[in-house]
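Hi, can you check this record?
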Amino acid sequence: MYAVRRIARAFLYAGLAWLLLGQAGCSGPQPDPEGRLLESARRALLDGRFLQAQTAYQSYLQTYPQGSARLEAWQRLVDISQDAQGATGQATSLAEAALLEFGGDTPTAAALDVRAARLRFDRKEYAKAVSHCRVVLDNPGAPDNSLLECSLLAARSELALGQGEKALARYIACGQSRLPPSGKARCALAQAELLSRFQRDSEVEPLLQAVFQAADIDPALRAQAGFDLGLLYEARNDKAAAKAVYEAVRPLHPNPMVVDKRLDSLQN
């Protein structure tokens, strides 16, 4: 997980590097002291000089209480603590400190709550992760992406706390929310997976069928639902039903060879 984060951040920083280089090549007035400090922080980050970047961003927050790039500074400090230093406790504290400043900005606050929830989850502080997500889920103005992420993360946290029925209720609530169809489908797939763990297969089948048959859902999600449905039929030894589903899934699946293997196995 740590390596994946570092790679993802590398792509982000690379994109920012092109932007900065493009700006540097344009003639114009020299940046003011605030701009110079911000530029030094960004360049240090791009160069992998994380301690210098951290110091510069901290200085920016202290020096410019009304600065236009304060959110960026908070976010990059969280990135450095989490990804470069592996200090998730410090990263969590920073994300929660940023919340105190941006709590009145609903989209920004929701994104920060989601990030703080993820950090708490990574630290196995599941109750605190749920608390952050509850703020998002109870806010009618929260963006859809934050609402979806917190629906899934809160359920995972509750499951980790041994609260399986609460987790199921969370998925059901997600399915009844204002999320678009593909968002609801992700919750339905997670719900089906949890029901399978509870050996409640009679409740799994209609969930998977509903996702698989919906034309307005992301094809990749439909493929996942159909593939899982085929596995369910195989477990029942209903090869004919499994074969029919796999054949319907194949055009949707991002890796048809996986489906072909299941079809081949049904011939044996």
